[in-house]
Specification:
Distance between the termini: 47 Å
Shape: elongated
Largest sheet: 5 strands, mixed
Structural class: alpha+beta
Number of helices: 11
Order of helices and strands: HHHHEEHEHHHHHEEH
Helix content: 55-70%
Number of strands: 5
């Protein structure tokens, strides 16, 4: 499959050849054209110079058509993936230490695999909060960790502190999660900043620091990462919405479309 750059360059070549053909008699064969171009590539530049407006208009039209086709292909592929996911929802392995925000018996559970230093994960936070506000008891949110250590060196440490707070203080971990995502640039300061947030939350910094470095915390993060890998997530954020995978920080409308469909199906099943 051609890359986008190669496709674009190939399209330019098609335009140039078309213009060249327009200046030649119909008896020229493809071999004649190729031979002529190989012997004298300046033929193309000459044609461009003589027909600049035609060339640019044709090129712009082709670029527009390619963009529209790419969008149509993407939408079609996305629809195919969604339809397959609705028919064959993926299963997310639960964990006794998962922190569930919202109704534990919600009709739709939203799992997010995230990295605290990923800028797209901050965008995802806003989407999740909007979904929780709109759907109330019908949805629940479970936050899981997928720190990308190679590019976000403090993400794992932030995950450790999240888990330590979850163990001792339950849902206060979500407040920690929201706080550090909203101040994402400060995470690069490492433990100093994380302890500052813990202190401002009124929690015991020594207790949380010790727990953050415990095997219990390491095991939970390792479980989350392994779960993400099994589901095919290698980047963040990655979601599973009621069994439907969503790879990336898609806009709110995309999640709403999925949740509405799932709720409709569940309502139909109960009738």
């Amino acid at each position: 499959m051609l890359s986008s750059n190669k496709t674009f360059n190939f399209s330019i070549l098609l335009v140039l050849v078309a213009l060249f053909l327009a200046s030649c008699s119909n008896k020229n064969s493809a071999q004649d054209i190729r031979k002529a171009l190989e012997e004298d590539p300046t033929i193309l530049t000459d044609v461009m110079k003589k027909n600049p407006q035609v060339f640019m208009e044709t090129l712009q039209q082709m670029a527009s058509e390619m963009k529209q086709q790419a969008l149509a292909d993407r939408n079609r592929k996305e629809k195919e993936i969604l339809e397959d996911a609705f028919k064959n929802p993926i299963q997310v392995q639960s964990h006794s230490d998962d922190l569930i925000i919202g109704n534990p018996n919600a009709k739709v559970k939203i799992y997010e695999y995230s990295d605290f230093q990923c800028p797209f994960c901050f965008r995802a936070l806003e989407t999740v909060k909007q979904l929780m506000d709109e759907y109330g008891k019908d949805v629940a949110f479970i936050y899981r960790h997928l720190p990308i250590d190679s590019i976000h060196p403090q993400a794992r440490l932030a995950a450790q502190y999240y888990e330590a707070i979850r163990i001792k203080h339950g849902k206060k971990a979500f407040k920690f999660h929201e706080t550090i995502l909203r101040n994402q640039a400060k995470i690069r300061l490492g433990e100093k900043y994380l302890l500052e947030v813990v202190k401002k939350m009124g929690l015991d910094t020594k207790e949380i620091k010790k727990l953050a470095n415990s095997k219990q915390v390491d095991d939970k993060i390792a479980f989350d990462i392994e779960s993400a890998n099994k589901l095919g997530f290698s980047g963040t954020p990655g979601f599973v919405v009621g069994g439907v995978p969503v790879k990336g920080a898609y806009p709110y409308a995309h999640f709403k479309k999925i949740i509405d469909r799932l709720l409709e199906n569940k309502t139909a099943d109960t009738k």
